[in-house]
Specification:
Low-confidence stretches of chain A: none
Shape of chain B: elongated
Largest interface: A-B, 70 and 78 residues
Mean pLDDT of chain A: 88
Helix content of chain B: 40-55%
Low-confidence stretches of chain B: 1-10
Order of helices and strands of chain A: HHHHHHHEEHHHHHHHEEHHHHHH
Radius of gyration of chain A: 23 Å
Largest sheet of chain A: 2 strands, antiparallel
Oligomer: heterodimer
Number of helices of chain B: 26
Structural class of chain B: alpha+beta
Mean pLDDT of chain B: 84
């Protein structure tokens, strides 16, 4: 890699931290209900929402009520979105006259967007009407992200509160997440993106007259119809809300979604911004900012080396091409590296940066095709997903899942120092361990069982785009992505059939609510406990030792669960490529 | 006969008879009804039975899951894995059982003299001790065994309690006060006692003690349950990871066209290696051994929960007398009045104390000898007349050759001097008051009308206690001294002993209030006590150690009884509690860390037929796929045996802050746990190859 690439990676993470800290502090005020500058501006709108929903702001919910509200809200969202997609042909806002979405894809998409996965087994511009995109998908981009943030707020309150039943009010948390955080950030980002040339229009398509004939048989210049629409607004929330479902099938590799280096940087920042800021929200709300920094450091400790490793692997290029004498070295004329499946404007290092960010955070948007990465380069993104989306992870969901790992880490460490384990003064007992185990176990189970089913059933194997170990990697990636609510795709796999629609849909459902319910149960149990005061006998959870321990737990649990599967997919592929 | 061994280090860890009994018990414990209590090992047992059936099939049909020899070897080692875990548990129980047998011998079949009325001299009838019920009143005379636990309501007697405490010197038991509790199985040596029985048969202290050392009524502690849940969660993850390998393997075989479907035997071997069998197999042994260590320290806990809580305690309430100080005030300085030689003061003070047998008096003689080389003199030869201390005069001293030497409290001596026609010099009064403000006791010495000076008596803090408290502080434990002294004296001793806080002029109510206020702030409090008036505080404390010499009420309110009645024991109890948790944590970490190496052994071996390139992952260069898998299984079984001593003895314990302890344990058991299996598996593989077993 060139010096510029190293500096670029360092600058990106530096900038991210600079933005995440103040945003995290601001979000802490949002969830603590303290008045912020935005309150004056948005207060009337907020009160209007509460009046319409019949919600009292001070109505503190027990964890059970909170969980029921999340589940009811999400199920309602799935049904509404499914109905909308099935009926889009008869509804307005369909300038291109698209047909209703087929039932399998409609189900898969509905679950996918409500669970903040945004897995797409279709091409956006050719399947979804403007109405479906704007009212269906974009609305869920906001709401699913906001639901994750609300659940995190409830868990943080569990740590911060003492001897109370309530963990907050879901409707208030949801509303404040949208109005005070997601909406303002999206508006700002959308305007900046549009200024850089990201399309934002209500028109259906534009027609371009190309200079070259499309096919050799055509003598004259051809017409090319390019779909356009409200792209900038959707791209903003797809990045900020760790959604990732692009307006275009090519996602952020498409020049209308990501036209300039500045948009590439901003969209990259937007992937990691909210999950990173959540750490600082945590620190501020539990009243010990060092705790937030420790969690943020743990995330960086995993992500930065994997990003560098992926960048190195991609920049090194493809050994098979090198053997043919192809020049893949960076020079004044080319970025160099493995350029298969990459946008020439973007290049290997920037694609690697994006690939690890989008898989670390459960975003799933892409600016290059991960399927075409070198085996080692593709391993890091897949493994980041399989870690359970805890390194940054989804908006809200990343941190609350990481906190489950923290409970396990603290439990074992607590035993090792000879005390009943505690985290932030809360004793960790059998109930918390049960919830932490469930929350960690269920997504992994969804991934492994789903992959096994696909290997066994003809419908699973028939959809493969590639033979051999790579085909297995495709299946594993698809279920890893669904089970951990990431939504990025390895491509090559045709997931539009009933088997994958249902299988992945179920995996997404388990991966989302199989974590949320245990997290809320743990939040309720923690809120009821009193806090143990800190002493020299307390295991400090804000130092490098705890960071190492937490990373060790995340990595070891992730590695031990998926090593057998990974060794039959990407590892074999890599070894085969080397052996060739 | 002494049923316990005062020094645990003297008892060998692997006692011949205990080992033999444990080996038998290990087989007996294969009963699934017993195994199901331990989820991890139960899974191992189930798959072991399944593998044995696979071997039968392979041996009978000739074409089974894998070659019969290989399946047999794997099954055999899986059986060993289960047996080794059972053996560990049986070993831990065995140590307790040997003790219980000795205690049972103390539970003599005795006849009791049940009194018709609760007074000495009432008519009595002979009944079996087992027929006595709570509330019955019995007469116990010299030579009799106490038929049960009870409270002395009349009489005073010397009692041999060696069967319970191991202490051969008899103790005095009398009605009223803090020495009224008697324990069943002990023997009255002289005189008689009228005792009200306070426990039904089967619930006496001796019964509880036997049950405790046997681990018969052992219930899982909250922390053990939480760990069990975590281990179960991990087991499910590993179960999924191995079971799904079957379809993955089917896909891989179809995709590559090479090799065979992975065999059930190999998958089971992988599963057992990945399961946290090390901690799963040793978990109950660790718990039992923790209780055992407590028994070695001569402390009986009423539940395992209390031992765990001891590890969490962060506030220790310690009685000043006996725990922090030696319990006697001792002379530390002579302060002469103006115009008096200090040696003359020392001489007079020594003369006044020669016949004084109180510890204070003896300490003055000792100090005079140390400072001024004043040897003891024979008072009789000097013709001296000893004047003993009385409550009226509040002085003691000698009359000799017309000299009237007295020592005593400031006001008492001032009155004496005034009676003799003298006066107390201002500097003596000032010195005495200055000593009092320092928390020490001034003893004024006068010779007739002339005050010679002041002897300073001070509570002497036990040697090494300051360092002990400093170590506790490093572990994050606060010490609070409880004393009946005035705040001034208390503050001085607290400063000298290095305790964090003190409660002066303590009353039982004040103790209770102190405990409650600490607990309200989230602290866990431990205390010791012996008197009936300690009972409320003992009941409130999280860890309450009653002295065996204490009253029945105190023993019932506490959750531990210290047979040695040594209040300093509290510190040791905390250490045992911490060590118990540490051992669990260390072995859990070790167990999980081990899995990394086992993957490197088994994954390439299992799939090298399908994807030959996976040979690269075989970093240990094991001989054949079969020897690789077998070596991992054997390592997994042997490590349980190898760690039994650690489980029984507990990890080495050093008082240190949590950060330091964690770093050390992570390094030893985490990093060590990752690395150790690599050479271990390789060595077993080499041995198997050398013996042509694989």
């Amino acid at each position: 890699m060139t010096a510029t690439s190293w500096i670029e990676i360092a600058a990106c993470f530096g900038l991210l931290t600079l933005l995440a800290v103040p945003l995290g502090e601001y979000m802490a005020r949002v969830y603590s209900g303290t008045s912020t500058a935005a309150d004056r501006l948005l207060g009337p709108a907020e009160r209007l929402v509460y009046r319409a929903l019949g919600v009292r702001r001070d109505d503190d919910m027990t964890w059970r009520r909170y969980a029921l509200a999340v589940l009811a809200f999400s199920l309602g969202g799935v049904l509404l979105l499914y109905a909308l997609l099935r009926a889009q042909g008869a509804l307005p806002g369909n300038p291109n006259g698209l047909a209703p979405v087929n039932p399998w894809i409609a189900f898969d998409t509905a679950v996918s967007f409500v669970t903040n996965t945004d897995w797409q087994s279709y091409s956006g511009e050719g399947t979804m009407s403007h109405l479906s995109q704007a009212v269906g998908l974009t609305v869920q981009n906001f709401l699913s992200a906001a639901a994750g943030m609300a659940v995190l707020a409830a868990l943080i309150r569990g740590f911060a509160r003492r001897q109370v039943e309530g963990v907050g009010n879901f409707w208030v948390d949801l509303t404040r997440s949208v109005l005070h955080v997601l909406l303002p950030l999206s508006v700002v980002l959308a305007v900046v993106l549009a200024s850089q040339g990201v399309v934002q229009t209500l028109a259906g398509s534009v027609t371009a007259h190309t200079l070259e004939p499309r096919r050799a048989a055509q003598a004259s210049a051809a017409e090319q119809v390019i779909d356009v629409g409200p792209v900038a607004s959707q791209v903003a929330i797809k990045q900020l809300g760790t959604n990732g479902g692009g307006y275009y099938n090519a996602n952020s590799a498409h020049p209308f979604e990501n036209p300039t280096p500045l948009t590439n940087l901003l969209e990259w920042l937007a992937i990691l911004l909210l999950p990173g800021a959540a750490c600082f929200t945590f620190g501020a709300m539990v009243g010990d900012r060092r705790q937030g920094w420790a969690l943020y450091a743990a995330m960086l400790v995993v992500l930065v080396p994997l990003t560098v490793g992926t960048a190195l692997a991609e920049q090194r290029g493809n050994p098979a091409l090198a053997a043919l004498g192809v020049d893949q070295a960076p020079s004044a004329l080319q970025g160099g590296g493995n350029m298969e499946g990459k946008e020439v404007r973007i290049g290997a290092v920037e694609s690697a940066l994006w690939a690890t960010a989008t898989t670390a955070a459960s975003n799933g948007s892409v600016n290059a095709m991960h399927d075409s990465f070198t085996p080692l380069g593709g391993l890091a993104p897949m493994w980041l997903i399989q870690l359970g989306e805890v390194v940054f992870g989804g908006v809200g969901s990343g941190l609350y899942t990481l906190l489950l790992h923290a409970l396990v880490a603290v439990f074992i460490a607590g035993l090792m120092v000879g005390r009943t384990p505690e985290y932030l003064g809360k004793k960790i007992g059998a109930y918390e361990m049960k919830m932490a185990s469930l929350g960690i176990l269920l997504p992994s189970a969804a991934v492994l069982v789903g992959t096994a089913a696909a290997c066994l059933l003809p419908a699973g194997r028939a959809a493969l785009g590639n033979p051999g170990a790579h085909g297995f990697s495709e299946i594993l990636y698809a279920f890893s992505s669904a089970g951990n609510n990431n939504g990025s795709a390895f491509a090559g796999l045709d997931a539009s059939g009933p088997f994958y629609a249902v299988g992945l849909g179920l995996a997404m459902f388990v991966g989302r609510f199989g974590v949320i319910v245990p997290v809320l149960a743990a939040a309720g149990a923690l809120a009821r406990k009193k806090a143990v005061p800190v002493s020299a006998g307390t295991l400090p959870t804000d130092g490098p030792l705890f960071v190492a321990l937490l990373v060790g737990t995340v990595v070891l649990v992730g590695a031990l669960t998926f090593v057998p599967a990974l060794s039959l997919g990407p590892v074999v592929e890599h070894l085969q490529l080397l052996a060739r | 006969m002494d049923p316990r061994h005062a020094d645990p280090s003297r008892r060998p860890l692997l006692d011949g008879p205990i080992v033999r009994r444990a080996a038998l018990d290990a087989v007996r414990k294969l009963d699934p009804r017993h195994m199901v209590r331990n989820p991890v090992m139960f899974v191992v047992e189930v798959v072991t039975v399944f593998t044995s059936l696979l071997w039968l099939q392979a041996a009978l049909t000739g074409h089974g899951d894998a070659s019969p020899g290989f399946v047999l070897a794997v099954s055999a080692w899986l059986w060993f894995t289960v047996l080794f875990a059972n053996f560990a548990e049986a070993m831990a129980e065995g140590r307790g059982k040997a003790q219980a047998d000795a205690l049972r011998r103390a539970r003599q079949v005795v006849l009791a003299k049940r009194l018709a009325a609760p007074r000495h001299g009432a008519a009595h009838e002979e009944v079996a001790a087992a027929a006595l019920r709570k509330g019955d009143v019995v007469l116990v005379t010299a030579g009799d065994y106490l038929p049960g636990d009870g409270e002395v309501i009349e009489g005073v007697a010397s009692v041999d309690e060696s069967a319970i405490t191991g202490e051969s010197a008899p103790v005095i038991r009398e009605s009223g006060g803090d020495r009224s509790a008697v324990t069943g199985g002990t023997r009255v040596l002289s005189d008689w006692l009228v005792v009200r029985i306070s426990a039904d048969p089967g619930e006496t202290f001796l019964d509880r003690m036997i049950a405790m050392v046997e681990g018969a009524r052992r219930q899982k502690t909250p922390n053990e349950i939480a760990l069990d849940i975590l281990l179960a969660g991990l087991s499910i993850v590993f179960l999924l990871a191995t079971v799904t390998l079957l379809p993955f393997s089917a896909y891989a075989v179809a995709a590559s066209g090479n090799g065979h479907l992975v065999s059930m035997t190999v998958l089971i071997a992988l599963l057992v290696c990945l399961l946290p069998t090390t901690i799963g197999g040793l978990l109950s042994a660790i718990g039992i051994a923790g209780m055992d260590r407590l028994v070695q320290a001569n402390v009986i806990a009423t539940s395992g929960r209390a031992v765990e809580a001891a590890g969490d305690v962060d506030v220790l309430l310690l009685d000043k007398t006996g725990t922090i100080t030696l319990g006697n005030r001792q002379a530390v300085a002579f302060l002469a009045a103006a115009g008096v030689e200090t040696a003359a003061l020392a001489d007079a003070a020594q003369l006044a104390s020669l016949a004084d047998e109180t510890p204070e008096g003896r300490s003055i003689v000792v100090l005079a000898k140390e400072r001024y080389a004043l040897r003891g003199r024979d008072l009789e030869r000097l013709g001296a007349q000893f004047v003993p201390f009385t409550a009226q005069t509040r002085m003691s001293g000698v009359d000799l050759d017309g000299q009237r030497i007295r020592k005593g409290a400031l006001d008492a001596v001032a009155r004496f001097v005034a009676e003799q026609g003298g006066g107390l010099p201002a500097d003596v009064r000032a010195a005495a008051e200055e000593i009092a403000t320092r928390g020490a006791t001034p003893l004024v010495v006068a010779d007739g009308p002339r005050a010679l000076g002041v002897v300073e008596l001070r509570d002497v803090v036990k040697g090494g206690i300051r360092e002990k408290f400093a170590a506790l502080r490093r572990m994050g434990i606060r010490t609070v001294m409880i004393t009946g002294d005035n705040p001034l004296t208390a503050a001085a001793i607290a400063a000298e002993a290095g305790v964090d806080d003190f409660l002066a002029e303590a009353t039982p109510e004040a103790k209770l209030a102190t405990i409650r206020s600490w607990q309200a702030q989230g602290h866990l409090v431990a205390m010791t006590g012996d008197g009936t008036n300690d009972a409320p505080a003992l009941a409130q404390a999280d860890v309450a150690v009653a002295m065996n010499t204490g009253t029945q009420a105190a023993k019932e309110a506490g959750n531990m009884v210290d047979l040695d009645s040594n209040p300093t024991k509290l510190i040791q109890i905390v250490e045992i509690g911490k060590q118990l948790l540490m051992t669990r944590g260390a072995l859990t970490t070790f167990s999980i860390a081990n899995d990394v190496a086992k993957y490197f052994a088994i994954i390439p071996a299992a799939f090298v037929g399908t994807y030959p390139v996976l040979r690269v992952l075989d970093v240990m260069h094991l001989h054949t796929p079969q020897s690789a898998i077998l070596s991992a299984v054997i390592f997994n079984a042997l490590i349980i045996i190898a760690l039994i001593p650690l489980a029984l003895r507990g990890v080495s314990y050093r008082p240190a802050p949590a950060r330091v302890t964690l770093r050390r344990h992570l390094l030893v058991y985490g990093v060590g746990g990752v690395l150790l299996p690599f050479p271990g598996i390789k060595a077993i593989d080499l041995a198997l190859t050398a013996l042509h077993l694989a």
